[in-house]
Amino acid sequence: MLQKVKLIVISLGILLVLSLAGLTYTILKLSPDQNGTVNIAIFYTLIFLISFCSATLIGFLLRRRFGVREFLTQHLRISIRQGLWLAILITCSFLLQSLRLFSWTNSLLLAGALIFLESFFLANDKKII
Length: 129
Hints:
The longest helix is centred in the middle third of the chain and has 31 residues, at 36-66. The protein is 83% helix and 0% strand. The chain contains four helices and no strands. By secondary structure, the chain is an all-alpha fold. α3 (72-98) packs antiparallel against α4. The protein has helices at residues 2-29, 36-66, 72-98, 104-124. It is flat, with a radius of gyration of 17 Å.
């Protein structure tokens, strides 16, 4: 089990570095005017991957540092799920901002919905995700 956790953490680190390199390339070399939809989709995908990998790795490392070490797979599962919610929140916020629809009320409603969804998963304690 420990090797599987280590493999997932290393894979997330590699994906984070590759996503950062891809975002740097996208910002510096690709123009949204040429192939606008494709380039914008690449940008938002990279933002999502960076947010997901960063939040998952930070959450896992904090849980590993301050939590019980015997539950590494459970810590990783929870960190992946919460990293997914945070990445969705960040990506949707960027998307709403680009459409000039971002407001604090929209952001708070989205965050509240994701908090309720996470509370549902924590309360059920089943291996849904």
